[in-house]
């Protein structure tokens, strides 16, 4: 179906490569395994969030905004990518981060500070009112004669999700060039926008394969509802003529482990194994949990040896550094 995308700014280094993980597939004793390397979208703005920010920052520019405001955990990849994108575009940034200001200035938080982001730390309880808090901060910037633009958690609204509709078109072109088809495409799910965009893109570009998200927080029902909301919003705002039932949004539950951004030893061990077997660096919050989930689902028989699977690497390398004591 024809669809005209809104304007976007160029922030990501694309197309990102698709590579085979031949040694890992032997280790898993499962399907043919490939990876889409969205960890290579850039250096400071590495990962999946930059694709969403291309559309969100373009809207901020159209509205003549000069401050980007967003939120996340203290080691949020999205918050870091937003801060770096703001600096690149000549804007200021203000981050509302869950947790406290205590602890090491490391990982994503170090990059936030390096590029000049203003940071407000709030408690987990306060974070439940993050949208209201960001709105108040926006009012404070407005009172100082600035024009703020508020980006939701993870950049996961219908506009941001368009970044992954575009990514699926990119993937479709690559697969035609490589003469490849995948039975399954798998990504981590933390705020829902990436999987929502992939669903849009699959419908727009008739990309084969079953899409699965492996949630790293909350549960499958939560994300089916959240992603349905993003898709409804996309139909309303952009006229995207597609509908998908909540039950057809495939979220593989059961791999949250200790909780969001909390690591089990088996997840840490797998990150080390993948690094040593393939030279592929996963992160402890998203891709490490998702790869662990994929490995377990292969062992359970969900993904067959005769099939071909694409794992979508969503980045997150800076999240490794605050957890380095867990590895050795």
Structural account:
- The protein is an alpha/beta fold and 328 residues long.
- The chain folds into two domains: 18-47 and 157-326, Rossmann fold (3-Layer(aba) Sandwich); 49-155, Rossmann fold (3-Layer(aba) Sandwich), CATH 3.40.50.1100.
- It contains eleven helices and ten strands.
- The strands form two sheets. It has a six-stranded mixed β-sheet with strand order 1-2-10-7-8-9, with helices on both faces. The chain has a four-stranded parallel β-sheet with strand order 5-4-3-6, with helices on both faces.
- The protein is globular.
- The N and C termini lie far apart (51 Å).
- 48% of the residues are buried.
- The mean pLDDT is 96.
List the helices and strands and how they pair.
Elements: E1 18-20, H1 22-28, E2 32-37, H2 49-62, E3 67-73, H3 77-88, E4 92-98, H4 107-114, E5 118-122, H5 124-127, H6 130-143, E6 148-150, H7 158-178, E7 184-189, H8 193-205, E8 210-215, H9 220-238, E9 251-252, H10 265-278, H11 287-300, E10 308-313
Parallel strand pairs: 2-10, 3-4, 3-6, 4-5, 7-8, 7-10, 8-9
Antiparallel strand pairs: 1-2
The class by helix and strand makeup works out as: alpha/beta
> How many H/I helical runs?
11
User: What distance separates the N and C termini?
Assistant: 51 Å
| CATH hierarchy, class of the largest domain | Alpha Beta
| Architecture per CATH nomenclature, i.e. the level-2 architecture of the largest domain | 3-Layer(aba) Sandwich
Tell me the count of domains: 2
Percentage beta strand: 15-25%
Low-confidence stretches: none
DSSP helix fraction? 40-55%
Order of helices and strands: EHEHEHEHEHHEHEHEHEHHE
C-alpha geometry: globular
Please describe the biggest sheet, giving its number of strands, its sense, and whether it closes into a barrel: 6 strands, mixed
Q: Tally of extended strands? A: 10
**Radius of gyration from the alpha-carbon trace, in angstroms:** 19 Å
**Average pLDDT rating:** 96
CATH fold-level topology of the largest domain? Rossmann fold
Strand order of the main beta sheet, please? Answer: 1-2-10-7-8-9
